[in-house]
Amino acid sequence: MRKPFYGALAVTFAAALTASLPLRAFTESIDYDSINKIKQQGLVASNSKVMDTLSYLTDVAGPRLTGSPNIEKAGQWAVKQLSDWGLTGAALEPWPADATGGNNGFPRGWSNDKFYMAAVAPDAFPIVGTPTAWTPGTTGLVRGNAMMVTENTLEELKAKYTGKLKGAWILRTPPPDVAAYWTAPAKRYTREELDAMESPAYPEFGVANPAAAGRGGAPAAPAPGVTPCNAGRGGGGGAATPNPCDAFFKAEGVAGVLSTAPRGHGIYTIGGNRATDPATSVAQVAITAEHYGRIARLLAKNLPVTLEADIKNTYTANPPMFNVVAEIKGTDKADEIVMLGGHFDSWHASTGATDNAAGSAAMMEAMRILKQSGVTLRRTVRLGLWTGEEQGIIGSRLYVNAHFATAPARGGAPAAASSPAQTLPGVPAGVTMVTPAWSKFAAYFNIDNGTGAIRGVYLQQNQAMAPIFREWMEPFKSIGMTHLNVGNTGGTDHLSFDAVGLPGFQFIQDAVEYGTMTHHTNLDSYERAQPEDMRRNATIAAAFAFLAANRDEKLPHKPVTALPAGGGRGGN
Predict the structure, then answer these.
(1) Tens-place pLDDT, residues 29-58
(2) Which of these, 321, 315, 395, lies nearest to 108 by C-alpha position?
(3) 108-180+226-317, CATH topology level
(4) What DSSP character marks residue 272?
(5) Alpha carbon distance 330, 252 (integer Å)
(6) CA 308/CA 116 separation, integer angstroms
(7) Which fold has domain 15-21+36-106+319-408+422-550?
(8) pTM for the full model?
(9) How many CB atoms lie under 10 A from the CB of residue 234?
């Protein structure tokens, strides 16, 4: 979903300790002959398949919204490709059965089959946009006047607009101010920025720390008798709930609701609420700020604006829910597992190239590299491509629950200290249903911060990994992998593993255009991927899997008592 976490927020003494560790604090066995075979297969453009894989996932499969026909098509293609490369067990592994009958929160699949929108008066112009996921379409070609409706409680809407909205296309917010690009929208980390991540500055006594203030706490509870409108939940995580004002708009005969994003420059952000009920909702469309602003300014001049649209969206009941899996069997430690992964799903305004076909293609390519290069793997290396990440890291969490252990629900009470799970060292409080496979798990590596080149690893507060990863990075310093961040990063599927005490890591990546142009936007297409970065990322992922698979010991777990540090949000 979003992505990179720039600040390092481990306590200063821990970060300084990590930064100062000698290069050879551990003596890792590096098989440079095998590493060179991996590099030859992954870094040489004529050998690499990563961009071809990316093209199939984006250009051919298209956007991969969880629960849509497109993601199933993409998954079937990936399974065949992985099988053709010689991997075993390639399959669409179904999500565990949902005892509630709610299909794990996806009772409806959804796809957009047609979109046309234009202004026809007072002047004709096309409108660029995308329907919000899980919202209904129109009943063929419809026309209606635009109206600015910014009231944001159900009671205000009823008092002011009952009987006045039939056929209208409503704008729910004033037009945003669009800033110019005063700085370049694409960037790579400088050495100084990477150094700052690895060794954050000491907080000075008497100097306020803005980060300590947090985000202001939870929003205030609504006043009695007031029903706030909201965008629902489920687009970015957590339980999905419907917008209480949708039913009013539906009952009033509204044609649709328009929204936009303040970044402008023809870029808009897309999302969707999987709890949206087509029986009680209307078409919702995200459009460019430039078109949204033009409509709003015309309305402010008391000039009627007539819009027409033809939108066809299709619903599928209880779509198949799955993750893509495949593996390369190990030799003498084949019962122990190293995993590579990233999320397979995307939003739908474009083809989800940097979020996260880039990570999926890189990890598929890493598996191909390991197989094609012929390097020996002592442990089994398994690939997991997750769905439902954009709705709250669901697919990987369900996989971890089914195969390794169950973490407590977010905000739930931890299990008692006497829980049988806590007899295993490294199992956090609250984790239950620990399987024998938990003790056989070596490491999980994730890519989900766009197309940017890997520059290091977030240690997720696992300080014992620092000297190991420093040695593993040595063969890749020449291509820019140089730094570690002792702190946490969030928003990606490594959290599902970390939550149950398994070593799970997200790579530090250059931002490139991720936050400024591509994350969840209509510009997230194949053209935004950087081929050299993609080749480097796949090669590094393959090498880290190789090194983890061939260590005599599994990677160390972090202590169950975490550092007293903050964290940050990574991908989604």
Answers:
(1) 899 999 999 999 999 999 999 999 999 999
(2) 315
(3) Glucose Oxidase; domain 1 (3.50.30)
(4) B
(5) 62
(6) 8
(7) Aminopeptidase (3.40.630)
(8) 0.91
(9) 24
